[in-house]
Amino acid sequence: MSRVLHHWRCSALQAAAQDDGWLAPISSGLNYSLQQIQTGLDQLHVPYSYGWAIIVLTVGTKILTFPFTKVESALAVQKLKPTIDAIKRQYGEDKNSIQRETSALYEASGVNPAAGCLPTLATIPIFWGLYRTLSNVASAGLLTEGFYWIPSLSGPTSLAAQRAGTGTAWLFPFVDGAPPVGWEDAARYLALPIALVAAQFASSAVISPPIDDEDKNAAFSKGLLIAVPFMVGWFALNVPSGLSLYYFSNTIITSGIQIWLRKLGGAYSPLLLLTFIHWPTVRACSSFLCCPRQANSCASLFLVPGNHLFACWARRDFYVQLSW
Fold it and tell me: Would you say residue 173 has pLDDT above 50?
């Protein structure tokens, strides 16, 4: 019986995947992976196997396709920002000198601000295919089981209702003073979108670079950081809970990977090589370099396994040397 049910599920998904156009090979492969994961979890008697299969597939796909290069490049540029700001203060309105010194800084630090664009673009078809996979699962009526407090991963609405503009009909307008699905089910379904909004805000607070208040786009950037979580939450109200579970899992794993890259060194040790605005005459002091007449001011600023970064100040200029 289970084999017949599994065959029916696969047939329904393959039929739905045929409408995915050029994404069909990707979504078909992800469809197959999702079914295999769900079947394996079922055989292990894992409760709510479909929900956990969505999470496992999301996490696995995210780890395999995460644009490490892009994130490491962004973190590198972010770490260099204090030095770049110092260059701007030093050269004022001399844009040519600022550009020259900034380019030299990037080159000396081994940082390419444009790095990672291609890896990021390469992941887009994968995650669009994953979205289509979960959409196909929902459309095929396979997300009938619940997930802990969520009554059904196919509820409280459908993709057809979303496309018709009635995705929130389960919540309002009220009928006899209550949501159409009732207060209890409405509260259960609302929990995941609320958790998703909270996760989006937490993710923005943890991984977003500081906003320079002097930047003319600062107000827009701050507004965007506030608006995006609510936009994602609104979208979650209009789709089946299985898709919301995917977005929630994706947010958590993305934040976790970026925290790992930032705090613990990531795919490679991302300690950034803060270098010079210009070099004075220096002399070696032990295993690191110090400024002449300022030897006592040398201090260890960062310590990452395998890397020791030391710096000293001399006449408002910042000098550092990496000691391996």
Answer: yes
Q: How far is Cα 261 from Cα 272, in angstroms, rounded to an integer?
A: 12
What is the distance between the alpha carbons of residues 249 and 61, in angstroms, rounded to a whole number?
11
* Other residues' Cβ atoms within 10 Å of the Cβ of residue 101: 21
Enter the pTM of the model.
0.66
Listed ranges 77-91, 280-294, 302-316; the one with the highest mean pLDDT: 77-91
- Residue 10 is predicted with a pLDDT of 54
Q: Residue 191, SS3?
A: helix
Please state, in angstroms and rounded to a whole number, the distance separating the CA atoms of residues 143 and 202.
29
| Residue 138, domain member (yes or no) | yes
Residue type, 53: A
pLDDT at 308: 33
Closest CA to 80 of 108, 118, 100: 108
Nearest residue to 260 (alpha-carbon basis) of 123, 236, 252 = 252
As a whole number, mean pLDDT of residues 46-58 equals 93
Q: Is residue 294 part of a domain?
A: yes
- What is the helix (H) or strand (E) element at residue 303, kind and residue range? strand 299-304
Structure tokens at 290: 């110090």
CA–CA separation, 189 and 179 (whole Å): 12
Q: Is residue 151 part of a domain?
A: no
Tokens representing 117 are 């664009």
Cα 123 to its chain centre, rounded Å, is 12
Number of domains in the chain: 2
SS3 318: strand
Structural domain includes residue 234 = no
What is the pLDDT at residue 183?
94
Q: Residue 27: which of 130, 96, 109 has the closest Cα?
A: 130
Range of the domain at 19: 1-67+116-142
Question: Residue 155 and residue 141: Cα distance in Å, rounded?
Answer: 10
